[in-house]
Amino acid sequence: MAEITEQTQHTRTASYLAEKGEVHRVLLLYSGGLDTSVMLKWIQDEYDAEVVALTVNLGQPGEDYGVVEGKARDLGAVDTFVVDAREEFAREYVLPSIKANGLYGGGYPLFTALGRPLIAKLAVEHARRVGCDTIAHGCTGKGNDQVRIEATVATLAPELKVIAPVRGWQMGREEEMAYARRNGIHVKGPSEGTPPYSIDDNLWGRSSEGRWIEELDHAPDDDVFQLVTPPERAPDETQIVEVTFERGVPVALDGERLGLVALLERAAEMGCRHGVGIVDHIEDRIVGLKVRDIYEVPAATIVLLAHRELEKLVCTIHQNQFKADLDRQWAYLVYAGLWWEPLRGDLDAYMERVNEQVTGTIGIKLYKGSARVVTRQSPNAVYDEALASFTASGGLFSQQASPGFIELWSLQSRMAWRLRNDPPT
Ligand code: ARG
What is the pTM of this model? Predict the structure, then answer.
């Protein structure tokens, strides 16, 4: 018996992948889109298995979850769940990222990378609760999302198996649409005003991939921007938004205290109105490929800018030099699907400690696509207005001490310069 198990283990690409005979009751991560709708039907036919559909609300703008749930039931789901995980997402995933100034590759605020481990964790919880043996997701074999979801399931629930039909079914887009039509699955098309980009979104941002976005010399067509107003059509009036933080947590906009979800939604609205948060990004995926993404990240642009600025003000030069390196490590780990890696917790402990000082208010001017810091205020600022002035001396700063400092500070550089340019004979 042990031998057989070992053999099967070695014939699979990965230990957590399900073989046909093992799939009886599947928890499907269901978005209501084409791929996961086709999957809902396909899994029932192909595996002769029951499907339970789970849809997770992470604040995707304009989604009607009642419709999604109804669609799952129509397609034969034996049970359906919609989980409103916005609060948990904001508190446990987006907030740590804010404290780590989470940005990958200089432009991507990680919204999808932050969402996937939570979605997969909820899938595990529901699968266990309703007795599923397998989790199914709709990721392709070319992206980062498969890594994030499967690494989460394999980490949190070694007893559960995974299937990823899109990776294996070898249907092209046309075949898939034909399959959908044959099975009465409604296919959204351009005729309904839905541009067929590949979209992923939540309250922290939205990505578009595919079509002309893959042509690197193609400047963005306006129809890709479903969230942010193109800057040239944004209002002629500027707006200053004040973001207040307490210990690294954004707590108020323009002096009005808001819960985190509401605050992020409000920041997104302001950014959208002023054309703020459009990012045209070339990205190094974890699976090797370079890909172009168009991001609309209005809330992240405003909140991360304000946080970074405030943190810079309350930290010393040494902390600022050091933290930027750790921030980059944090973002890379999360981007790369290793949310549950202990190093992330180690880094979070450091982020928490630094953020104890991040209290204050940053004013940001929004205008036709730009967001610029214009005011700063903090009780913890390592800043003394009197010392900052060019002429003043006294207190903690002595101008007389400067030349001595310069002599010692430049000592090794001067010695090395001499050795190279004026060598002893
Ligand atoms: N490139 C981003 C990432 O890897 C966004 C991915 C969006 N996912 C999607 N299935 N459309 O996180």
Answer: 0.94
